[in-house]
Amino acid sequence: MFKSNDESDYKNFNSDDTIIGHSIKIEGDLISDGSIIVEGEVAGSVKTAATLRVGDKAKITASVSAKDGYVAGQVVGNMDIADKLELSSSATVNGDISAKILLVESGAIINGKVTMSGVREIVNE
Description:
By secondary structure, this protein is mainly β. The protein has one domain (7-114). It has no helices and 13 strands. Strands 1, 2, 3, 4, 5, 6, 7, 8, 9, 10, 11, 12 and 13 form a 13-stranded parallel beta sheet that branches.
């Protein structure tokens, strides 16, 4: 799902998008209308009206809201995904998941309740 040290991971992202590098640790609320790639650590909350990508060595300790999500690393907190959430084989989610569509590769770990329901829209405030 994620290729290390390869710029092709980021070719579909534009200047409104945010990349949290491997050596970065953020504490607080991260809110964006653009997509977010997390390769480092985030503690607090993460909210985007677009796509959230969590790299295989990344760790998010936060409540998460996004339109779509792709997780290869670790998320500690509840995830509210309006459309599709994909968990790779290296993903660990310790928290409840709410998503319209959930794709889980063999080996992924979910410790929490999963709710799959109708369409919702993520609106940043």
